[in-house]
Backbone:
């Protein structure tokens, strides 16, 4: 079986990780130098390197593999999962200096489950550290924000994003047309992991092909083609007709915010796009969800530009 490119090209050392902020790099290096970390909350867009940075930290700190527990919190969301899985792990003594609990996508955890982490962080602070990753920091309860050092990971710009994917294709000896690669970039940006994964899946006989229609995100690929042709209204209608559930709406609008160039290159065209996106978000069912803070959502989306 072929090795997954997302793992094959995942950096494992600090030197291989590209920081967007030099201050953040110095901060991470200081943790490595001191051989210790606080509880951490990594936030940022999907596929921007949150989990990768967490694993680099664990590796650089030399944490024993038996002292590391990785949990995908989007699958184990309830308070019973925390009690059964996490409590049992942190309650035993570490082989090394401390244990590390890596909770991916912690924003999917219920508020009760998040609240239970608070007491675990306090009770086991001498022998355990928690690293939480999330896409939406506003969904993390204040008690965890106050106990973790926040660390927001910015998305890389589209030029560097494209260059990274292109370099992987070249290394793997895959031929590609720049226009097809551009479609992959625009359909997935800023999720580098997703772009690399889709490029591998659709690299057949040494050539990168168009995204297969059976792919769940193929509607974005088709919409990009419509945007490029100048059919903006048709592209918007195509996107909205293919959104499967209310849960996907926010992600769809975040994607549009991240790719304003699809609507045009002038400031006026981008301003009109932002207005249309914000209006669409307000008009959709997401506003009826009592768990959604609409004002915070709009602020989060606006900062993406």
Residues:
């Amino acid at each position: 079986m072929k090795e997954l490119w997302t793992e094959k090209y995942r950096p494992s050392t600090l030197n291989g990780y590209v920081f967007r902020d030099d201050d953040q790099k110095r901060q991470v290096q200081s943790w490595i130098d001191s051989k210790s970390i606080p509880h951490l909350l990594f936030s940022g867009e999907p596929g921007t390197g949150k989990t990768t940075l967490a694993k680099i930290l664990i590796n650089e700190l030399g944490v024993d593999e038996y002292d590391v527990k990785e949990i995908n919190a989007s699958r184990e969301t309830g308070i019973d999962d925390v009690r059964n899985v996490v409590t049992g792990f942190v309650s035993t003594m570490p082989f090394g200096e401390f244990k590390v609990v890596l909770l991916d996508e912690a924003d999917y955890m219920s508020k009760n489950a998040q609240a239970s982490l608070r007491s675990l962080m306090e009770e086991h602070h001498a022998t355990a550290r928690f690293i939480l990753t999330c896409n939406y920091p506003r969904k993390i309860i204040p008690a965890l924000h106050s106990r973790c050092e926040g660390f927001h990971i910015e998305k890389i710009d589209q030029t560097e994003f494209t260059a990274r994917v292109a370099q992987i294709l070249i290394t793997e000896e895959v031929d590609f047309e720049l226009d097809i690669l551009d479609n992959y970039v625009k359909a997935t940006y800023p999720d580098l992991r997703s772009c690399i994964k889709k490029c591998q899946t659709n690299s057949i006989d040494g050539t990168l092909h168009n995204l297969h229609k059976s792919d769940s995100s193929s509607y974005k690929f088709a919409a990009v083609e419509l945007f490029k042709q100048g059919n903006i209204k048709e592209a918007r209608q195509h996107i909205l007709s293919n959104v499967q559930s209310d849960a996907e709406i926010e992600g769809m609008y975040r994607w549009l915010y991240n790719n304003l160039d699809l609507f045009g290159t002038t400031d006026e065209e981008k301003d009109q796009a932002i207005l249309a996106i914000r209006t669409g978000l307000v008009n959709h069912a997401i506003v009826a969800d009592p768990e959604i803070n609409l004002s915070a959502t709009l602020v989060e989306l606006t900062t993406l530009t």
